[in-house]
Amino acid sequence: MPCLTNEERYQAVGMLRANTPVANVARTFNVTRDTIYRLMNRLQTSGSVQDGPRTGRPRATTPAHVRYIRVLYLRDRLQPATKTAREWPGRRTISAPTVHRRLGAQGLISRRLARHIRLLPRHRRVRLNWARLHR
């Protein structure tokens, strides 16, 4: 139930103990009735309304790392995420998508390398002739 804060969970439990209908409690906190029922079940089984531990892979970066990525980006806004990831200090390596996601979470947009075909002078001439012909 991550949509309710701890304070809201305790308020909901208080309302339920005051014999407020589940539908009214759910409407008050703008959640579904199932959320309130799960909250009641958790309270009855574990005696607590706190979030339980979650499974999943631990994050590759700490909040300090995220601040460092932000500082690096703000120093050189044209540096792509791949370069930041390649030059990452320490034992653990991070990927360019990780850098891109961490910057995006802070409202910053990392640059992506421009990949395009290099045109030789002969190619430019041919394209210009084609454009003039089809104008």
From TrEMBL:
SUPFAM superfamilies: Homeodomain-like (SSF46689). It comes from the Eukaryota. InterPro entries: Homeodomain-like_sf. Pfam families: HTH_29. This is Uncharacterized protein LOC101863616. It comes from Aplysia californica.
